Amino acid sequence: MRSSVNGHGSDAVGGGARPRARRAFSKGAPAARPPAPAGLFARGLTRSFAGRVVLCGADLEVRPGTLAVLEGVNGAGKTTMLRIFATLLRPDDGEASVDGCDVVRDGARVRERIGVAFVNERSLYWRLSGRENLRLFARTRGLSRRAARAQVDALLEELDLGEIATKWVADLSAGQRQRLIIARAGLGEPSCMLIDEPLRGLDDAGIETMLSFLSAQARRGAAVLVVAPKLDELRAHGDVLHRLRDGRVQPWSEDAAAGEYRSMRSDLDERPDVEPPHEVPLGAAR
Question: What is the per-residue pLDDT for 11?
Fold first, then answer.
């Protein structure tokens, strides 16, 4: 009786050597991309509106425990970048992540990790008080009633909003509403915060309080990205300073900022048709 099967020399009952398996080779398999770092990360972000390029290969990284300030003139793309990180806008190209979660593929996980405040947003309930608004949003973030009360009271005190906590939002000034919106961004102690022009509409005392709050968020370990048209007081408090120019993020420097200002002034001086804005008295016809 023959002891081999199909010419391989293996035992028919199972006692001999088995046929050697072929090794599989992958041809041209792409190398695994390293995971995105913690905090805010963007690489090659591109975004256009009606054919106008706003972001053109922008790169940015804000690490945990860092207060980063991004300066840029109006229309430079600062808010566009915030909206991409907040999953409110998709990039045309490039990638962005929050704590390693891709803003396009993992939107729900991104939103769990961020606190967002846009300037002039009208997302507060105007016929609720400041405290009632914050408690409502705290509950939507999954906080228990006890935790919501504790965090809301702490944020109201930290941002010096105790006096207006019981007033309707409709009765607050623009600066008070701005501070309330930024307080809402701190609910749940998010790991990343996206803050749009936090000093707009604030008096000197409000500016000092806001800068202290933003610095405290970075000290507790959050990656904080603040955007503004001018650095002003933010310059002394930011750990990292950037500028958005021609759709790309660049390191901020005093010489570059001064050069850009001189260039803008030169352009205006060469245009006699551009006149300074005229003040219109209150109540006058426009």
Answer: 45
